């Protein structure tokens, strides 16, 4: 009996220890199974669509929505290092792929970047003005009465060789008589043997002649006076230049004083055009620059002139600088105070040039979408220079021969935001990689489809139902 107890107790202990060990082994195996399954799930390669990231499959194929080839889905552990292949795939997240159908629907067009000469056109408004160097006033050189006017109205054309009026002046008649007496005395005294007497006669003639010239009498008139031997009752008044009467102040029979204005004359064969250039554009203009003038009164008939002067001050109300353009006025077609349009062409030299529609201004930087491969677009930061109506100068960021999107760029940019989510910062277009999504996360801006992929613990958000007969959803890994 005692022997049986000695055998039974150790045997029971051994059996209990064996049962405890087996139970512990089974428990450890059961706990390791989920981790093994999870690791296997992590090691399994998945595929997704670059345009529709919620499409997830476990084998290669095409997207059931757009028909594009599926790409490998990046499954990088949080805090772990990515492989070279994963980094290359992460770089491609900043790119946007478009199928031929999508390009047509989005109206995406591309052009090759060229290095060409660019000319900037500055459009400005101007006003036709009198050429101030070709204006004059006809004044009375002596007090008297206007006996006759040869010009009776504004707009008459006058010549400097023809008198515009005749004035009667007693002072002028007396001065003419003095001159005639001086000439007679000179002729009488020139044969005197005394040199002082003969020279005195010449001095009297010169003094009388000087007084006549101060009254506005020309030398030719003085010669005629000396030849005739009698004074002229009326003195002809001439204009200093040929032109058009723009103002008439006198009437026939009116008395005038010395220095009083009779007419204003302007030569309109040449005119000024004062153009107003905005302060951000006037550094591009300079003296001698060719300017094209267009008037609504003469459509299709441009005029040409050159910048002769740039005013050294700015108009504080219009924020413009005036530039004076001197130009011929054939047929006097341009009238003073007429509004015209001025086109100033500024050569900017040879550089990289793209259409204005190719550049997207984000506020902080300028971005273009470059087609590196057929259907594959990447964002590129560029530095822009001068702009014209339809072209822009690129200082850096592009090379000749590259293709850029000139239409549909904003749609490509929007698609990039939908695809990239938190990985693509719109304010920092670099054309580089986006941060890959870690396990258990979905890219920001996208929603996890209903059901979720095995190993993802995020709550599922139901996708909107597809239209009947348009999309097969049974082959998606949702």
UniProtKB/TrEMBL annotation:
Residue stretches making up the Heavy metal binding domain: 47-73
Swiss-Prot/TrEMBL keywords: Ion transport, Membrane, Signal, Transmembrane, Transmembrane helix, Transport
A single cellular component GO annotation: outer membrane-bounded periplasmic space
Domain CusB-like beta-barrel span(s) in chain numbering: 270-343
Single Gene Ontology MF annotation: transmembrane transporter activity
Residue ranges occupied by any CusB-like three alpha-helical bundle domain in the UniProt entry: 199-231
UniProt-annotated stretches for the region Disordered: 416-478
Ranges of compositional bias, category Low complexity: 436-451
Pfam family, any one: 3HB_CusB
Domain CusB-like barrel-sandwich hybrid: 136-266
Ranges where the CzcB-like C-terminal circularly permuted SH3-like domain occurs: 352-412
Transmembrane annotation, as ranges: 7-27
Family assignment from sequence similarity: Belongs to the membrane fusion protein (MFP) (TC 8.A.1) family.
Name this protein carries in UniProt: RND transporter
Organism of origin: Geobacter hydrogenophilus
Organismal lineage: Bacteria, Pseudomonadati, Thermodesulfobacteriota, Desulfuromonadia, Geobacterales
């Amino acid at each position: 009996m005692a022997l049986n107890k000695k055998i039974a107790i150790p045997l029971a202990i051994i059996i209990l220890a064996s049962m405890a060990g087996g139970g512990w082994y089974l428990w450890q195996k059961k706990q390791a199974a989920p981790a093994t399954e999870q690791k296997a799930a992590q090691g399994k390669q998945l595929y997704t669509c670059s345009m529709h990231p919620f499409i997830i499959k476990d084998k290669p194929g095409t997207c059931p929505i757009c028909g594009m080839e599926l790409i490998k889905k990046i499954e990088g552990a949080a805090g772990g290092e990515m492989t070279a292949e994963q980094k290359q795939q992460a770089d491609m997240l900043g790119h946007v792929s478009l199928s031929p159908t999508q390009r047509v629907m989005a109206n995406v067009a591309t052009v090759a970047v060229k290095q060409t000469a660019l000319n900037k056109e500055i459009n400005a408004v101007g006003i036709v003005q009198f050429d101030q160097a070709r204006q004059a006033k006809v004044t009375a050189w002596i007090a008297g009465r206007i006996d006759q006017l040869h010009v009776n109205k504004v707009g008459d054309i006058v010549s400097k060789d023809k008198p515009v009026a005749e004035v009667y002046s007693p002072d002028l008649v007396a001065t003419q008589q003095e001159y005639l007496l001086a000439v007679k005395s000179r002729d009488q005294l020139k044969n005197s043997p005394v040199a002082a007497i003969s020279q005195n006669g010449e001095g009297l003639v010169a003094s009388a002649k000087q007084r006549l010239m101060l009254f506005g009498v020309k030398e030719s008139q003085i010669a005629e006076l000396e030849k005739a031997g009698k004074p002229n009752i009326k003195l002809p008044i001439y204009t200093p230049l040929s032109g058009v009467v723009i103002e008439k102040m006198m009437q026939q029979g009116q008395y005038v004083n010395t220095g009083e204005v009779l007419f204003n004359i302007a030569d309109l064969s040449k005119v000024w055009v004062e153009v107003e250039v905005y302060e951000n554009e006037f550094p591009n203009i300079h003296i001698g620059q060719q300017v094209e003038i267009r008037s609504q009164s003469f459509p299709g008939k441009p005029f040409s002139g050159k910048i002769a002067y740039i005013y050294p001050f700015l108009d504080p109300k219009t924020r413009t600088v005036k530039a004076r353009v001197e130009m011929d006025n054939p047929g006097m077609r341009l009238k003073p105070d007429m509004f015209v349009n001025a086109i100033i062409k500024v050569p900017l030299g040879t550089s990289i040039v793209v259409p204005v529609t190719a550049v997207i201004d984000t506020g902080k930087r300028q971005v273009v979408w470059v087609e590196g491969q057929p259907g594959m677009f990447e964002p590129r930061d560029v530095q822009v220079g001068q702009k014209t109506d339809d072209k822009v100068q690129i200082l850096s960021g592009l090379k000749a021969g590259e293709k850029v999107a000139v239409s549909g760029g904003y749609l490509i940019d929007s698609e990039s935001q939908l695809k990239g989510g938190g990985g693509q910062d719109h304010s920092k277009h670099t054309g580089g990689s986006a941060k890959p999504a870690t396990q258990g996360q979905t890219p920001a801006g996208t929603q996890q489809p209903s059901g979720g992929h095995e190993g993802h613990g995020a709550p599922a958000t139901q996708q909107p139902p597809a239209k009947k007969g348009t999309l097969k959803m049974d082959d998606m890994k949702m």
